[in-house]
């Protein structure tokens, strides 16, 4: 079988650069992870392996809202969600609102081979205990401070109603890869949108937020409810399956999102190796390897940015 030139795109959410250490710092972080994961793909790692490892590295990076550094919910607790989709077998697995683990994506990876593939809170905690995964506190000082600040200004309103407000965070991490066999996988992980109501379910462990099949793969970021209402990841992948080019599928989906007033972003690639990203949010923190070199989307914002960007196969 002919060796496919691997492709990779990752994201660290659609929220501001400032609270993450600024442009150069975020760029170094994202590009470092792209370099690391692309070398795995270049050495024959499968898309599922590369996506899992890439998500773990992003979860371990405290500046992003997933794993270590996850935002705090309305009751002061961290609950995380993650999903992995093996495009070759068109199989999704994931965990919803899991606590006290370092890498929610590793639970999603384990669940790929199980009959019951998406577990929430108590089920995910039981699995973690069964697998003897050490307890881990993902809460960082920065996130505690952030929560304390919110608490000072309108703690009563938020805690009484247990709703997040318009300052909802758009942090998530995600990875989409095409491996040497031509297989695609997508992974997404999040701490949620911050200050949300207890029990709120993120898009990240649903096909709306993370989807792949043999034709294309997508990972989303942004306000989960907006992503769910657009059914964004699955919609883009199905459009490609039905004959749209990836760029046309993302462009149409981004126009719909904009018309509907959504606040979101996404990364994607297809089996030909085209890489496409899109956003209605102000900024998308993404980086990619197109088989020739590394690029990123960190300066893709402002008036002339448009709704999509892409690296087409030559
Ligand atoms: N997209 C992450 C969330 O809304 O939870």
TrEMBL record:
The active site is at residue 172. It comes from the Bacteria. GO terms for molecular function: hydrolase activity, acting on carbon-nitrogen (but not peptide) bonds, in linear amides. Pfam families: Asparaginase_2 (PF01112). The record marks 171-172 as: Cleavage. Substrate binds at residues 200-203, 221-224. Gene3D superfamilies: (Glycosyl)asparaginase. PANTHER family: L-ASPARAGINASE (PTHR10188), N(4)-(BETA-N-ACETYLGLUCOSAMINYL)-L-ASPARAGINASE (PTHR10188:SF6). This is Isoaspartyl peptidase. It comes from Microcystis aeruginosa PCC 7806SL.
């Amino acid at each position: 079988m002919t060796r496919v030139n691997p492709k990779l795109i990752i994201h660290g959410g659609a929220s501001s650069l400032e609270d993450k250490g600024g442009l150069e710092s975020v760029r170094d972080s994202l590009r470092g992870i792209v370099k690391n994961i692309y070398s795995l793909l270049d050495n024959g790692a499968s898309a599922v392996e590369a996506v899992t490892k890439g998500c773990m590295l992003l979860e371990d990076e405290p500046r992003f809202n997933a794993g270590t550094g996850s935002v705090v919910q309305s009751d002061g607790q961290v609950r995380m969600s993650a999903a992995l989709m093996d495009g070759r077998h068109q199989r999704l697995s994931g965990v919803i609102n899991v606590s006290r683990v370092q890498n929610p994506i590793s639970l999603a990876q384990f669940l790929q081979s199980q009959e019951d593939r998406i577990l929430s809170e108590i089920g995910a905690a039981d699995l973690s205990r069964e697998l003897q995964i050490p307890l881990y506190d993902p809460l960082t000082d920065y996130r505690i401070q952030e929560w304390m600040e919110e608490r000072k200004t309108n703690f009563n309103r938020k805690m009484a109603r247990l709703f997040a407000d318009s300052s909802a965070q758009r942090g998530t991490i995600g990875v989409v890869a095409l491996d040497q066999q031509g297989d695609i996988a997508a992974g997404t992980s999040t701490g949620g949108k911050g200050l949300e109501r207890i029990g709120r379910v993120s898009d990240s462990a649903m096909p709306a937020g993370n989807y792949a099949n043999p034709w294309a793969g997508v990972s989303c970021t942004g306000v989960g409810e907006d992503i769910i209402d657009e059914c964004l990841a699955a919609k883009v992948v199905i459009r490609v399956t039905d004959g749209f080019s990836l760029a046309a599928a993302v462009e149409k989906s981004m126009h719909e999102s904009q018309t509907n007033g959504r606040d979101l972003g996404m990364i994607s690639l297809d089996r030909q190796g085209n890489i496409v990203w899109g956003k209605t949010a102000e900024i998308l923190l993404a980086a990619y390897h197109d088989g020739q070199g590394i690029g990123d989307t960190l300066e893709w914002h402002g008036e002339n940015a448009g709704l999509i960007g892409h690296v087409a196969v030559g």
